[in-house]
Write a structure and sequence with these properties.
By secondary structure, the protein is α/β, with parallel strands linked by helices. It has one domain: Aldolase class I (TIM Barrel). Helix content is 39%, strand content 14%. It has twelve helices and ten strands. α4 links the parallel β5 and β6. The chain binds ligand PBG. Ligand PBG binds next to α6.
Length: 337
């Protein structure tokens, strides 16, 4: 039956959605493997990669396997990694002493990656949570009720200098202590490391979505809970303006890259920060964001490939220049196809 019903429309947006060619022509957010930073977990010893049960497809690598993984990533166009050590619990104490060991696992890992894959950009976390028995990012006040800001910053400065000397391109303070960016910048400069850049975890929220990461680095196990309460230093998820205060401070203190974390649930913050700063903006798609997509895919409820791509495009569209994501390798491979 011929359809005689015709709308008299001047504009028909569907015209530009008609073919793949037209859709590609008008696509405004482009994700490249080079925009991705792969977070990688490293353990001591020569064992096989240990799967992280709450993060399908994520492993803790020996240094030898870490190097292999970096080669693979580099071949796929992922040119940056963020390294996270998982320490033997015997090495942890209340003060996170192992963080300042000149032979620390992460330092050896950085050296090995830089030697074998020199073109790889390497970032390391500056915080004490992999090193403390309580799983907090710093040392505690004498009564144990809170993280001691200034004493923690002093340790983080030494840690940053050690990492810089080991050859990292970016130190990434993820601890959320006040004043740490400026203090770390001054320490790096005093140590002759003025070329080491700071990727500041600027707006890092106190999120429950860090749970699987805490399994991966063992901070949950050390503390006996994944629900570590970091609300006296990480931002309240209910707050928006506070992120701008942190941006102002980190910029003034000398941050080279401004980060928002988590990413997918904080797209409004990413957009706001993008507008507020001229600095490059990074967003961290955290472990829980990764795990929930995998979990739903395992149940057959969501399509893994489509959802992971959409999640990353959304983060890029919100204004992130670069994205830390556990999907880095798989998505880079997909982008190459
Ligand atoms: C700790 C740190 C955390 C993450 C990166 N660095 C967790 C926390 O604050 O407890 C989370 C990353 C993720 O969930 O993927 N300094």
């Amino acid at each position: 039956m011929p359809n005689s019903f015709k709308l008299n429309l001047l504009y028909r947006p569907r015209r530009l959605r008609r073919t793949a060619g037209l859709r590609a022509l008008v696509e405004d957010t482009v994700l490249r493997p080079e925009n991705l930073i792969a977070p990688l977990f490293v353990v001591d010893g020569k064992g096989r990669p240990e799967p992280v049960p709450s993060m399908p497809g994520v492993f803790r690598y020996s240094i030898a396997d870490l190097v292999k993984e970096c080669r693979l990533l580099s071949g796929l166009g992922v040119r940056a990694v963020a390294l996270f050590p998982k320490l033997d619990s015997a090495l942890k104490d209340a003060e996170g002493t192992a963080a300042l060991s000149p032979d620390a696992l992460v330092l050896r890992a950085v050296g090995a990656v830089k030697k074998a894959v020199p073109e790889m950009t390497v970032a390391t976390d500056i915080a004490l949570d992999p090193y403390t028995v309580h799983g907090h990012d710093g040392v505690l006040t004498p009564d144990g009720s809170d993280v001691d800001n200034d004493r923690t910053v002093e340790i983080l400065c030494s840690m940053a200098v050690l990492h810089a000397r080991a050859g990292v391109d970016l130190v990434a303070p993820s601890d959320m202590m006040d004043g740490r960016i400026g203090a770390i910048r001054r320490s790096l400069d005093a140590a002759g490391r003025e070329q080491t850049a700071i990727m500041a975890y600027t707006a890092k929220y106190a999120s429950a979505y860090y749970g699987p990461f805490r399994d991966a680095v063992g901070s949950a196990k050390a503390a006996g809970t994944r629900s570590l309460d970091k609300r006296t230093y990480q931002l309240n998820p209910a707050n928006r303006r506070e992120a701008l205060i942190e941006v102002k401070l980190d910029e003034a203190e000398g941050a080279d890259i401004i980060m928002v974390k988590p990413a997918g649930l904080y797209l409004d913050i990413i957009r706001m920060v993008r507008t507020a700063t001229k600095k490059p903006v990074a967003a961290y798609q955290v472990s829980g964001e990764y795990s929930q997509i995998h979990a739903a895919a395992r149940l057959g409820w969501l399509d893994l490939e489509l959802c992971r791509m959409e999640s990353l495009i959304a983060i890029k569209r919100a204004g992130a220049d670069m994205i830390l994501t556990y999907f880095a390798k798989d998505v880079a491979a997909e982008l190459r196809r």
